[in-house]
Write a structure and sequence with these properties.
This is INHIBITOR OF TRYPSIN AND HAGEMAN FACTOR-LIKE PROTEIN. InterPro entries: Prot_inh_pot1, Prot_inh_pot1_sf. This protein starts with 20 loop residues before the first helix and ends in a 13-residue tail after the last strand. With 72 residues, it is of the alpha+beta class. 15% of the residues lie in helices and 17% in strands. The mean pLDDT is 93.
Length: 72
């Protein structure tokens, strides 16, 4: 059975945990051109709606990825 939240392409990037945020965002968009990787500082308020074309790249105060980036 198909779900409305089934997204195409790679959906999670655990290997980018600890990487520099800008590098991570570029890697995500290269590996899945259907998504827009958005860098956001830890603690930011973001929309909670699920979208197949968006990846939040959470970064700490040094710009380092602090959570596994995934589609959502």
């Amino acid at each position: 059975m198909s779900s409305d939240t089934t997204c195409q392409g790679k959906s999670s990037w655990p290997e980018l945990l600890g990487a520099e945020g800008k590098v991570a965002a570029a890697t995500i968009e290269k590996e899945n051109p259907l998504v827009d990787a958005r860098i956001v500082p830890d603690g930011s308020v973001v929309p909670l709606d699920f979208r197949c074309d968006r990846v939040w790249v959470w970064v700490d105060e040094r710009g380092i990825v602090s959570q596994v980036p995934q589609i959502g």
